[in-house]
Design brief:
The structure holds three protein chains of three kinds.
Chain A (H helix, E strand, L loop, with lengths): L4 E12 L2 E12 L3 E5 L6 H9 L4 E10 L2 E2 L5 H6 L2 E4 L11 H15 L7 H14 L4 H4 L9 H15 L3 E5 L7 H14 L5 E6 L12 E6 L2 E6 L1 H10 L1 H7 L3
Parallel strand pairs in A: 3-8, 3-9, 6-7, 7-8
Antiparallel strand pairs in A: 1-2, 1-4, 4-5, 9-10
Helix pairs in contact in A: 6-7
Chain B lengths: L6 H15 L4 H17 L17 H4 L15 H7 L7 E6 L2 E8 L5 E5 H7 L1 H7 L10 H9 L4 E5 L8 E7 L7 E2 L2 E6 L4 E10 L5 E11 L4 E9 L3 E11 L4 E9 L3 E10 L5 E10 L4 E10 L5 E10 L4 E10 L6 E11 L5 E10 L4 E10 L3 H8 L5 H17 L5 H13 L2 H4 L3
Parallel strand pairs in B: 1-5, 4-7, 5-8, 6-9, 7-9, 8-10, 9-11, 10-12, 11-13, 12-14, 13-15, 14-16, 15-17, 16-18, 17-19, 18-20
Antiparallel strand pairs in B: 1-2, 3-4
Chain C lengths: L29 E2 L6 H10 L4 H16 L24 E2 L15 H9 L13 E7 L2 E5 L2 H6 L3 E4 H7 L1 H7 L10 H9 L4 E5 L8 E7 L10 E6 L4 E9 L6 E4 L2 E6 L4 E8 L11 E12 L5 E8 L4 E4 L2 E4 L5 E10 L4 E10 L5 E11 L3 E10 L7 E11 L4 E10 L5 E10 L2 H8 L5 H17 L4 H15 L5
Parallel strand pairs in C: 3-7, 6-8, 7-9, 8-11, 9-12, 10-13, 11-13, 12-14, 13-15, 13-16, 14-17, 15-18, 16-18, 17-19, 18-20, 19-21, 20-22, 21-23
Antiparallel strand pairs in C: 1-2, 3-4, 5-6
Classes of the chains: A alpha/beta, B alpha/beta, C alpha/beta.
């Protein structure tokens, strides 16, 4: 594993409106690492990834987030994306009338242009699209649809991971990517995530259940309760939580 | 009853000039006399109280100007120039009318399925057809603009579609020429799709002048039993006072599939009435309106289910920029006895600027019980959620907005068959929105 | 207790089965001569012993009304023969204002029996659970219960004629502030001749512990009823107000033109529920009330809320649009409505939501049911002013048709002048589904009951907004109103 720090969170407090949800988060992620954040409903998991992605209604009140050596919180959300930060949404929004192909083309062009690369030709783009679609078991008809419109829960998640592979970011934030999936769909999604992993990549995976960690083995597990990380450890921590429940931890740490 | 203001005298004068020069059969002369009489009685519907059809459009600026000069001649016009401002395909049959006059040099008809006549030709070739149909749908007795058009049109196009083979598209272009001074332009089109015939018609109205001028257009469409018409109507007259009327009558089992594309005008009105007067008739009316600057556009769409088992869909989308003002007023009527009617109506609007204003009034009037009718309306800016999703994939705000606007318009654009027409309208849409134009 | 609340199922022994509230209360009432002129306006004011400013205000309203030349608003989808405004009695009341019983015990036993029969007992010990009642007969309030208990909390709940005497400052400040007499023809008429109604004031921070109710009863023939209601909820207060109305069976139409004004200050909430069961006329459309009513509330302060719930089953013609002006930032307006027309009834009803403040929200849920030859129109306006950043509206209008001679119409107006607003409107029209009916019938349910169940389900979203007191009655009222629609 390399020692390059990609994301450094220090004393992050954040919320929506007048409600404070994150009450001081510290976390360091290095290239090549996969971190899992587990926690009960309402603990602040989604808030954390949404703050990192720059969702407008989520506000950072205090603390620092450094991404690739830059102050992440000062960057507009599209710039974060072009700098290689990717959020796989828990509930991807439907975009009526916006074709998947056109959407992906615009995203890829934006990112390549940002890095001083030429836009792909139609042929190159199509080839890339086919290749990644195949990896995720996505067929041609699917690519003709509008973004997320009328997708089933499983299709939405698969489409998110398909984008992850196609846009090839550096840091992937996966927000409950496992929720609402049956076993077969979970395997496909997990395969996609594992394909993304590598020494120059990092993953922050947020989940309620330990189940997905059987397929995507984390290097570190953090337990988030009431806006604070109350425990960190290896993947065995996830199994312990699974066995004993979050209540056990809440009591242990006196949170 | 109402004393006609002096400005209306000029319209009467214009009528008298035309009556002297146009050789018309007696029935038509009488009809036009009656029409000018009705216009003088009615006047323009300028009342600001108790005038529900014009609730959101104040016609007083229009009524204050006497649009009585004839459209100026425009000899310079060339096919090449037209292709810059109009959709075009070598496959299409084309008829061009400039300032109400037929331009043979800019027209070519190769299809055998469409008879296309000027008024004079039609009165020779099919006099009874013209007499039976003209002004039967655009009733001028209670409508000032129908009256004005009927009294003052210089020429009319009469189109008869026959045969059930898929016909080539017929593009009828009405050009308002450039010219000084307020002139009145009265395009008139009569379309008969005969029993069982299938046809495709594009009507476009394009203004080259810097105005102000008046275009008061009337199109009447008759769909006989089992007939089917794919219809497009494009209005691109930003400098005009444009009052366009479309009147459609449908017999049993006929199908009318129509897409309207409208840019705003000084005052624009898209006035449509479709009567489903035979059982199992179907009408699909789609519309996209795009307004900017100080433009004003008032859509007034009425669908009348008279006979049972009819189907109608009314789906309009508006994109508003600048300080423009757009209106959607649509009513679906279901008459007593029109059971098993299936009607839906939807109007959605996207506001791109703080100064834009939209008024939407989608109404249902239902007098039969065994029906399924529904409508929806919505207005707002591009959704924040959607914008964030796209930005989280690396698209900047402008690009993301553009993509969403395009997606919004797609629902209507997808209904356009001819590919050349579709890409032309997509281009015009973005060219008409200053907030997005810079984004390439 | 519960059985006493069953207004609907009470046997009255009246011939006309379909309208069981149609009896006349045999009580002596004093009336003024028919017709309307300045003298009559002065006479009404004088009978009420009103101060000079009130008389002047009435006269100004009267002069404005006269200037309209008997021309009523024309835009509604209703039809009626011309109303002869000089053929109406504008004031009728039990003998003298000073004879109003000093205590509830002194109420004329005939009156007490009548209100008992209507399900509105005037003895506090027999009260509707937790409801204070102001009973208005024709032009005057005849009894108000629980006044003492409410006074202890600083809540004023009294006839408006009493409020004009006792709280002139409050009345002067707010009367006509939401519905000026120039607002429309009927508001002008009401302002000139209104005779009674209810005044409510809830002081800052007080949560009114019981529902307040006014029961309006038209009794005399040829009388018009013109009541006026004014409710002011001061900062941080809450009040739930109920209104019920019935009238005897008369062969001729009678006019009812009320004005209701609601004012909610910062953080205040007013919940206003109406059960309108005026005499609807007979099967042929003879008789029945012309119900031309102006109701409007203003959310003046931040975070205030006004909620209208109405169930309109009565009247020959209903013309009313309970509205909310959302002036305070974050204020909320709601409108929940069930309107049912049967036989020859006509209803043109809906709401106006005018968004002025930022982050204002409104919800409109309207259910229309048309049967017989009834004509039912929803008419509503949602207006977003340029200042109303992030305003939200959601509207849902559904119409149900029973039989092929009735009509259901929907005319919404959406006026949007701020791009940050989000407005959504949905509407459907259909008949009772044969499939649903068959499903229920196949389970052994009688067709009439099955139809009632479906209609009741169709209205549920509105009924659940009603206070418990009303909800039970309403379901039964619906059943009665639907009688004779099967087959």
């Amino acid at each position: 594993m390399t020692q390059d720090v990609i994301l450094e969170i220090r004393g992050l407090r954040a919320g929506v409106g007048d409600v404070e949800i994150l009450k001081g988060i510290d976390l360091t992620i290095r290239l090549g690492e996969t971190h899992a954040i587990m926690g009960p409903n309402g603990s602040g998991k989604s808030t954390l990834v949404n703050v990192l992605a720059g969702k407008p209604e989520y506000e950072a009140w205090a603390g620092q987030v450094t991404y690739k050596g830059r102050d992440l919180l000062q960057m507009p959300p599209d710039e974060r994306a072009r700098e290689g930060l990717f959020l796989a949404f828990q509930y991807p929004v439907e975009l009526p009338g916006v074709r998947i192909r056109e959407f992906l083309r615009a995203a890829l062009d934006s990112i390549r242009e940002h890095h001083g690369l030429d836009k792909l030709s139609v042929r190159e783009f199509n080839r890339l699209l086919q290749e990644k679609a195949k990896e995720m078991g996505i067929d041609q008809d699917f690519l003709r649809r509008n973004v997320n419109e009328g997708f089933s829960g499983g299709e939405k998640k698969r489409h998110e991971i398909f984008q992850l592979l196609l846009l090839d970011p550096t840091l992937a934030l996966l927000d409950e990517t496992d929720s609402g999936l049956d076993v077969d769909a979970l395997k496909i999604v997990a395969d996609g995530i594992n394909r993304f992993r590598g020494p120059q990549k990092a993953i922050l995976l947020v989940t309620h259940y330990q189940r997905i960690l059987n397929y995507v083995a984390p290097d570190y597990v953090h337990i988030l309760i009431d806006g604070r990380i109350v425990a960190s450890g290896g993947k065995e921590l996830a199994l312990e939580v699974e066995a004993k429940g979050y209540e056990w931890l809440r009591q242990t740490v006196g949170g | 009853m109402v004393q006609a203001p002096p400005v209306y005298d000029a319209y009467l004068q214009r009528f008298q000039e035309l009556a002297k020069t146009l050789p018309l059969p007696l029935w038509l002369q009488e009809m036009r006399e009656e029409a000018i009489g009705r216009f003088l009685d009615l006047g323009f519907p300028v009342a600001r109280r108790g005038n529900e059809p014009w609730k959101y459009t104040d016609l007083r600026p229009l009524a204050a100007i006497p649009f009585c000069q004839p459209p100026p001649p425009y000899p310079k016009i060339q096919a090449k120039g037209l292709r810059q401002i109009l959709p075009w395909s070598p496959r299409w049959d084309v008829v061009t009318m400039v300032g109400g006059e037929y331009k043979a040099s800019l027209s070519h008809i190769r299809g055998a399925q469409a008879q296309v006549w000027t008024l004079t030709q039609s009165l020779q070739e099919a006099p009874s057809l013209v007499e039976e149909h003209l002004a039967r749908l655009a009733i001028y007795h209670n409508d000032a603009f129908a009256a004005l058009n009927t009294a003052l049109f210089q020429d009319a196009l009469v189109v008869v579609f026959q045969g059930s083979r898929e016909a080539r598209e017929l593009h009828v272009a009405f050009i308002s020429p450039p010219g000084e001074g307020p002139y009145g332009h009265y395009p008139r089109l009569l379309v008969v799709v005969e029993k069982g015939a299938r046809a495709s018609l594009i009507e476009s109205y394009v203004g080259l002048g810097s105005g102000p001028y008046l275009t008061a257009a009337v199109t009447e469409v008759f769909l006989e039993e089992g007939a089917s018409l794919e219809h497009y109507r494009l209005v691109m007259e930003p400098e005009a006072y444009h009052i366009g009327q479309l009147r459609v009558w449908q017999d049993q089992g006929s199908s009318f599939h129509s897409v309207y594309f409208g840019r705003g005008s000084r005052i624009g009105r898209n006035d449509v009435r479709v009567e489903l007067d035979g059982p199992k008739a179907e009408a699909y009316l789609y519309g996209l309106y795009v307004t900017q600057g100080q433009e004003h556009l008032d859509n007034y769409i009425n669908i009348d289910h008279i006979k049972p088992h009819g189907t109608s869909r009314l789906l309009y989308r508006g994109i508003l920029d600048g300080a423009s003002h757009a209106i959607f007023g649509g009513t679906v009527y279901v008459q007593p006895g029109a059971i098993k009617t299936d009607a839906e109506q939807e109007d959605k609007n996207l506001l791109l600027s703080r100064e834009a204003e939209v008024d939407s009034k989608p109404a249902l009037e239902i007098y039969a019980d065994d029906v399924r009718c529904g409508h929806g309306a919505a207005a707002g800016a591009v959704a924040d959620e959607a914008l964030f999703y796209l930005r989280s994939r690396g698209l900047n705000r402008e690009l993301a907005t553009r993509l969403l606007v395009k997606g919004f318009a797609t629902t209507v654009l997808d209904q356009i068959g001819p590919a050349r027409l579709r890409s032309f309208l997509e281009m015009v849409t973005f060219a008409s929105l200053p907030s997005l134009r810079s984004l390439g | 207790m519960a059985s006493r609340r069953k207004v609907i199922s009470r046997e009255t022994g009246i011939e006309e089965k379909e309208y069981r509230w149609g009896f006349v209360i045999p009580i002596e009432e004093e009336t003024v001569p028919k017709g309307l002129n300045e003298e009559i306006v002065r006479l009404i004011s004088q009978k009420k012993g009103e101060p000079g400013w009130m008389t002047e205000w009435r006269l100004r309203a009267y002069r404005y009304w006269r200037s309209l030349g008997y021309v009523e608003p024309k835009w509604a989808k209703i039809y009626h023969p011309p109303i002869d405004y000089q053929d109406i009695i504008y004031y009728a009341a039990p003998p003298k204002e000073s004879d109003r019983p000093k205590s509830l015990e002194e109420i004329d036993p005939e009156l007490r029996r009548a209100f008992d029969k209507l399900g509105i007992p005037l003895e506090e010990q027999k009260r509707l659970a937790g409801v204070a009642v102001d009973a208005v007969l024709d032009s005057a309030s005849v009894a108000t219960t629980f006044q003492k208990k409410l006074e202890d909390l600083g809540i004023i709940f009294c006839p408006i004629s009493e409020a004009i005497q006792k709280y002139p400052e409050l009345v002067r400040r707010y009367l006509g502030s939401v519905v000026p007499y120039t607002d429309n023809f009927f508001a002008a008429l009401n302002s000139a001749v209104f005779s009674d109604g209810t005044f409510v004031y809830v002081p800052p921070g007080v949560r009114c512990p019981m529902d307040l109710m006014t029961y309006f009863r038209i009794n005399q023939a040829e009388v018009g009823q013109f009541e006026r209601t004014l409710i002011v909820a001061d900062r941080g207060s809450y009040v739930s107000y109920l209104e019920g109305c019935t009238a005897p069976i008369r062969k001729r139409h009678q006019l009812h033109a009320a004005v209701v004004e609601l004012i909610a200050l910062e953080d205040a909430e007013i919940k206003y529920s109406t059960l309108q069961n005026w005499y609807p006329g007979d099967r042929e459309g003879r008789g029945g009330i012309y119900n031309f009513v102006t109701k409007r509330g203003i959310c003046l302060g931040r975070n205030s809320k006004i909620s209208w719930t109405q169930v309109e089953t009565g009247s020959a013609i209903t013309w009313k649009y309970p509205s909310v002006i959302l002036k305070g930032d974050n204020s909320v307006g709601e409108f929940y409505s069930v309107a049912l027309v049967n036989h020859r009834q006509q209803a043109d009803t809906g709401t106006k939501m005018v968004h002025i403040g930022k982050h204002t929200r409104s919800t409109i849920i309207a259910k229309g049911i048309s049967a017989g030859y009834g004509q039912n129109t929803y008419r509503g306006l949602v207006k977003i002013m340029p200042s109303a950043d992030y305003a939200r509206n959601f509207t849902r209008c559904d119409s149900l048709l029973i039989g092929n001679r009735c009509g259901a119409h929907t005319t919404p107006y959406l006026e949007v002048r701020n791009p940050t607003a989000r407005i959504e409107h949905e509407a459907t029209t259909s008949k009772i589904s044969e499939e649903q009916l068959f499903y229920l019938i196949s389970r052994g349910i009688r067709e009439e009951d099955a139809q009632y169940m479906i209609v009741n389900g169709f209205c549920r979203g509105v009924f659940q907004e009603l206070p418990f007191e009303f909800a039970m009655e309403v379901s039964q009222l619906l059943r009665v109103s639907l009688e004779g629609t099967v087959g």
